[in-house]
Design a protein that fits this description.
The complex is a heterodimer of chains A (254) and B (295). Chain A is mainly α and 254 residues long. Chain A has twelve helices and no strands. Chain A is elongated, with a radius of gyration of 29 Å. Classes of the chains: A mainly alpha (254), B alpha+beta (295).
């Protein structure tokens, strides 16, 4: 009877730990309905020529009608992007690279400001849609050497932005990094060498180091980097878990 | 006969002593006027300092950021490369994620490793193929590039301009430069890390400081502190130490990883490994390595 009572204490401690882990597992969002990739064809092409009149080629980065372009043009459609590039090249000949740079500003930082709502909070579906769109630019760059600087910039910018957005969201809520869609996006980014630097929690780091058998680091960290109270709590937990077994062994020896 | 035996014993004793201490007879691997080592106590903290004088460009840097295409890991690459070289020190470099990928933009000898320009690190370290090393503050957006294909007058802002970032990665690839990101702790002799948002975790610390000595000559210093401090505390104490004790004007100071890959080895001028200034793990635990060598 006395033995049963003693065993009850570690059983309760282990049950509490198990319940904590279960709560963490239950909180994970396993939803795997990835948004289907959309066809991105413009029905009515946007005519940018009237908006390019009277612009100073040397001031193009400042005076280009970014807002009109993003509001009116089908910037998702590569044919329309090419049409705008053609219009710029004919309006400002001998400035091909400059024209690409201006359009890259429109399709990166200006567009990000335009889509700022997609980056508010954790919205994995929005991030996946942007990823699906931006990924195409890597392929465009491979087949269109002349415009590859623009396409590479757009692709790199958005993959970077998505990667950094993932990290920022994971910083606010560590639990989301176990969500299916989070893992999906992170792996898609990793595949293209955009590794998402998601920070681990204290418990995660400890588990990783246990797996890595980095005993010296674990001991030093526990001994030198924790408070006396923390050490007391850990020693008490270990004692609670071990004591009944020592007691059983002693009883058996008697 | 007895004399011959005694002479024989003396000869054996001398040769075996010389054999045991053969390292003492080896020629120095570097000129000690370029490498100065000291252990100093400053305001209750103990600092191990390796001072590397960069004038004459005899002391050079090399960084291994990742495995190569043939599957050789960083340790294997370092071992192969270091054969016949006069290594002064070797240390773990920047942070890695759980998959062993360096965090932040990383290019190894012109080969892309990680394309993500991480917002969390402000230091962009460029290690040139000729052994030079520079640190820039990404927040300032004033990176300058040299060599073919670079607009030498332009200030590249990699954070704000995607176009500039693309130009920089192309330049790194064509110049076989090595690039990595890490925490920028000091820039232009001022702390850039804030007490308010610094990580509260305590660890032993290892920093690389780049600056000028009392005579205005270029120096790099590796500072190791065994005391467990936060990144902010460690950086502040080290900056005070370098300014006040060493009279060093610190242009930039970055953090070297003492967490998962706490790897460090310092070689004395006779080639033996220093047993005091060291990391907790063996070299093969490193996922990236920064090394200084003498040429």
């Amino acid at each position: 009877m006395q033995l049963n009572k003693l065993l009850l204490v570690p059983a309760i401690v282990l049950s509490v730990l198990f319940l904590c882990l279960l709560t963490l597992v239950i909180q994970v969002n396993y939803s795997d309905n990835i948004p289907v990739e959309r066809a991105l064809n413009a029905e009515e092409p946007f005519n940018i020529y009237p908006h390019l009149r009277n612009l100073d080629v040397n001031q193009l980065k400042e005076t280009f009608p970014f807002q009109i372009y993003l509001d009116s043009a089908h910037w998702t459609d590569i044919k329309e992007i090419n049409a705008v590039l053609c219009a710029m090249d004919s309006s400002y000949p001998n400035n091909e690279m400059g024209n690409q740079e201006v359009l890259s500003i429109a399709l990166t930082e200006k567009l990000e400001a335009h889509l700022s709502k997609s980056f508010e909070g954790y919205q994995p579906d929005s991030l996946i849609r942007i990823l699906q769109w931006a990924e195409r630019f890597n392929n465009y760059a491979a087949i269109d050497e002349i415009h590859s600087p623009l396409f590479e910039v757009v692709y790199t910018y958005w993959f970077n932005s998505i990667s950094n957005a993932l990290r920022e969201n994971a910083e606010k809520n560590y639990a989301i990094k176990y969500d299916y869609k989070f893992r999906y996006i992170a792996e898609r980014l990793r595949e293209k060498q955009f590794s998402t630097p998601v920070k681990g929690t204290y418990i995660e780091k400890t588990i990783y180091r246990l797996i890595d058998k980095n005993w010296a680091y674990l001991f030093n960290k526990f001994w030198y980097a924790t408070s006396v109270l923390y050490k007391l709590v850990i020693f008490s937990l270990v004692a609670i878990l071990i004591f009944p077994y020592i007691y059983i062994l002693k009883m058996k020896q008697k | 006969m007895r004399y011959i035996l005694v002479l024989g014993y003396v000869f054996i004793l001398i040769t075996s002593w010389a054999g045991f201490h053969s390292e003492k007879l080896l020629p120095p691997i570097y000129d000690s006027k370029y490498v100065d080592v000291s252990t100093v106590k400053f305001k209750e903290d103990q600092f191990h300092v390796i001072y590397l004088k960069r004038d004459s460009n005899r002391v050079k840097a090399k960084y291994f950021a990742a495995s190569d295409y043939n599957g050789n890991n960083v340790f294997q690459r370092y071992k192969k490369w270091s054969a016949g070289k006069n290594i002064i020190l070797v240390s773990s470099g920047t942070y890695i994620d759980y998959d062993g990928v360096p965090v932040g933009l990383t290019i190894d000898n012109g080969v892309m490793v990680n394309k993500n320009l991480a917002k969390i690190f402000d230091a962009l370290v460029v290690v040139y193929a000729n052994g030079g090393i520079t640190v820039t503050n990404l927040k300032d957006g004033d990176l300058k590039l040299k060599g073919n294909g670079a607009d030498t007058a332009k200030k590249y802002d990699l954070r704000k301009s995607a176009w500039d970032l693309q130009a920089f990665t192309k330049w790194s690839e064509s110049h076989e430069a090595t690039v990595f990101q890490t925490h920028l702790l000091v820039y232009k002799n001022k702390l850039t890390i804030s007490f308010m948002n610094a990580n509260p975790a305590v660890n032993p610390r290892r920093f690389l400081a780049i600056g000028k000595d009392r005579n205005g000559k270029g120096v790099h210093a590796i500072i190791q502190s065994t005391a467990y401090t936060t990144l902010y505390d460690g950086a502040k104490r080290t900056l005070d130490f370098l300014n006040q004790m060493k009279g060093m004007e610190v242009v930039s100071m970055i953090n070297l990883d003492t967490g998962d890959q706490d790897v460090f080895k310092f070689f004395e001028k006779d080639g033996t490994v220093n047993k005091t200034i060291k990391g907790a793990r063996e070299l093969d635990a490193a996922v990236n390595l920064l090394t200084y060598y003498f040429q």
